[in-house]
Amino acid sequence: MRKISLHGGHSGQYCDHARDTLADIVEAYHLAGFECVGLSEHMPPFGDAGLYPDEVELGRSAGWMEARFALYVAEARELARNYKDRMRILVGMESEWYPGCARWVADLRRYHGLDYVVGSVHHVKGVCFDFSRDAYDKASAICGGTSRMYAAYFDEQLEMLRETRPEVVGHFDLIRLHDPDYLQTLALPEVWERVMCNLEWLRDAGAILDINARALLKGQPEPYVCAPILDAAAKLGIGVAYGDDAHGVADVGYGFEQVEEVLAARNMKGPEAFGDGVLRNLCG
């Protein structure tokens, strides 16, 4: 598998829950032998209601975050120029999905001329579920239980896919984050039907599925996405890409070999071999 990461590059400069400078992280990708890396800092929030709890504690505002994001894009483009003869760098962002942000994602993409977008869902019913176990339990309670939270997550993910049309779909099954019985929950008919609906959208749209190794870093037994979803994606011929979701230099390339084994076992292809889409052209 070629060393390509399409979900990486969160830095302490531009993400309050990350570490290290963007330049140091990019250098780490180069030293690790990556030939193409997609930088995907989180998008600035659509209004102060979209701030994460740590950002609120630090006194951030949506306007301040937007200005910082512009600095990220400028530095990322400079790094792309500086590394152009050594490593291809894509300048993108990881999106959010909560009420009111669909137009905002499109505006950010257009205004900053981003190379691509990683479409992720971190909220259910407007509640961020992945910030902590307490937040996860709160989202579950609002939805009326774990299986209903999964169903709501995949419904909102489909809305995100249709409205923002991301080139890469980030950590597709992140909703299993704090569910030790996630395989059983995913197998429930009302959940699995939604999984398949969303995978079929990916196939029809030519989007790339992020195989996200951060789950391994957090002690989970397999990456996002898990084996049954990967098996279904393989049967549908969906393109995939490794993502370390790095939040610092130490995370760069984490779990690459394990993801490579998982994908090789299913003969799944990376973005460089997937049709004539934008990511194939960008990755070379």
Quote the CATH topology: TIM Barrel
Count helical runs: 12
CATH superfamily heading? Metal-dependent hydrolases
Number of domains: 1
CATH class categorisation: Alpha Beta
- Number of strand elements: 9
Determine the structural class based on helices, strands and strand pairing.
Answer: alpha/beta
Q: Quick one: biggest sheet?
A: 7 strands, parallel
Question: What sequence of helices (H) and strands (E) makes up the elements?
Answer: EHEHHEHEEEHHEHHEHHEHH
- Percent of residues in beta strands? 5-15%
Q: What ranges have pLDDT less than 50 throughout 5 or more consecutive residues? A: none
**What is the multimeric organization of the chains shown?**
single chain
Specify Rg, calculated over alpha carbons: 18 Å
Note the overall shape.
globular
In which order are the strands of the major sheet placed? Answer: 1-2-3-4-7-8-9
Approximate helicity band: 40-55%
Mean pLDDT: 93
Cα(first) to Cα(last) distance is: 14 Å
* Named CATH architecture: Alpha-Beta Barrel
Pathway: Amino-acid biosynthesis; L-histidine biosynthesis; L-histidine from 5-phospho-alpha-D-ribose 1-diphosphate: step 8/9
Keywords: Amino-acid biosynthesis, Histidine biosynthesis, Hydrolase
Pfam families: PHP (PF02811)
GO molecular function, one term: histidinol-phosphatase activity
